[in-house]
Amino acid sequence: MSPSIHTPSYYDSYPPLLRPNNNPIHDLNQDPNPLPDPNPDPIPVIDFQNIDNDAISEACRNWGVFRLANHGIPDALLNQLHGRAEEAFSLPFDSKHALKSCTAMAYFWGTPALTPTGETVERGPTPPADMKWFEGFNVLLNQLAQQLQVEDPVLDNFRLVLDEYGRHQSRLATTIFKAMAENLNLDQNLYESYLSPSTASMRIYRYLKCPLPVWGLNAHTDSTVLTVLTHDEVGGFQVCKGDDEWIDVKPIPNTLVLILGDLIQAMSDDKYKSVKHRVKANKYKERISVGYFVFSAVDAVIQSSMYKPFTYADFRAGVQQDLKTLGYKKVGLGHFKLPHASP
Ligand SMILES: O=C(O)CCC(=O)C(=O)O
Ligand SMILES: [Fe+2]
């Protein structure tokens, strides 16, 4: 008998457990993809070239999310970012998996529960219903330029574009945070420790075609001060308005979506909302998104009338505890809530 020859297939880039041939229910071409809704979404838009503090204040209080237009990131760079990410994800799974403990650019798949250095929080085998149909790279921006030596030209090009994109994000986040801090009358001496772009990380996701009726990413709030997302045209990102109204955020080319995280909610004495968001899984199309996550300095003490003083290090330790025991962030800001502020 001749030895079986393995013909490389597109799905060699997928984590083995998420390949269609390992999922008999994976029937990719059965129904047509539903048509997108032609109506615009109601997400507020902020013009970065003409910042209106009142409009920012309104969006932060009522939504916790807005779209950023005229952000000054060249379209060519955004296109390159998506192109390079696509190339990196198309590498064979083993080449990506080799980076799973590479702190500057750590590869992960199947779960968003990561340690601060990008390694998967181990909790024993994940049942398929909890498995997330994605893979990604967790990038620590301050390590990307100096610490990461990769020989593969695809990964090296990816690193270069991430570095450039990250510098734009740090510029945008600093300016937007300043407008928010002015609106909140925060002490100017706190600005630098409350928003520390040197702590920033990025996550680049490829959501794979998903055969199961599960969420691409479950509803959560971010543990950040601010998060800035760029999405491809596939869609599926939703934010929660009020208690339970889920709104589809339309993918609009070359705009960014900025969401407020838990840390700014505390800094604002709960006037601003850390918005819940989630991602719908898609059976037919892969989706690429890039998130920039910026935090406070790890040892900066966050003062709030609604919470006990805490540092980002304290906050992160609470989240890691939840990830280890439950697999998801449960308590978050609740760890620090003052009794008089509880409902
Ligand atoms: O993929 C996305 O659009 C959202 C990612 C996200 O919410 C996160 O990583 O916290
Ligand atoms: Fe998120």
Automatic annotation (TrEMBL):
<keyword id="KW-0408">Iron</keyword>
<dbReference type="Pfam" id="PF14226">
    <property type="entry name" value="DIOX_N"/>
</dbReference>
<dbReference type="InterPro" id="IPR027443">
    <property type="entry name" value="IPNS-like_sf"/>
</dbReference>
<keyword id="KW-0560">Oxidoreductase</keyword>
<feature type="compositionally biased region" description="Pro residues">
    <location>
        <begin position="33"/>
        <end position="42"/>
    </location>
</feature>
<feature type="domain" description="Fe2OG dioxygenase">
    <location>
        <begin position="198"/>
        <end position="296"/>
    </location>
</feature>
<keyword id="KW-0479">Metal-binding</keyword>
<dbReference type="InterPro" id="IPR026992">
    <property type="entry name" value="DIOX_N"/>
</dbReference>
<dbReference type="Pfam" id="PF03171">
    <property type="entry name" value="2OG-FeII_Oxy"/>
</dbReference>
<dbReference type="InterPro" id="IPR044861">
    <property type="entry name" value="IPNS-like_FE2OG_OXY"/>
</dbReference>
<protein>
    <recommendedName>
        <fullName>Fe2OG dioxygenase domain-containing protein</fullName>
    </recommendedName>
</protein>
<comment type="similarity">
    <text>Belongs to the iron/ascorbate-dependent oxidoreductase family.</text>
</comment>
<dbReference type="InterPro" id="IPR005123">
    <property type="entry name" value="Oxoglu/Fe-dep_dioxygenase_dom"/>
</dbReference>
<feature type="region of interest" description="Disordered">
    <location>
        <begin position="21"/>
        <end position="42"/>
    </location>
</feature>
<dbReference type="InterPro" id="IPR050231">
    <property type="entry name" value="Iron_ascorbate_oxido_reductase"/>
</dbReference>
<dbReference type="GO" id="GO:0046872">
    <property type="term" value="F:metal ion binding"/>
</dbReference>
<dbReference type="GO" id="GO:0016705">
    <property type="term" value="F:oxidoreductase activity, acting on paired donors, with incorporation or reduction of molecular oxygen"/>
</dbReference>
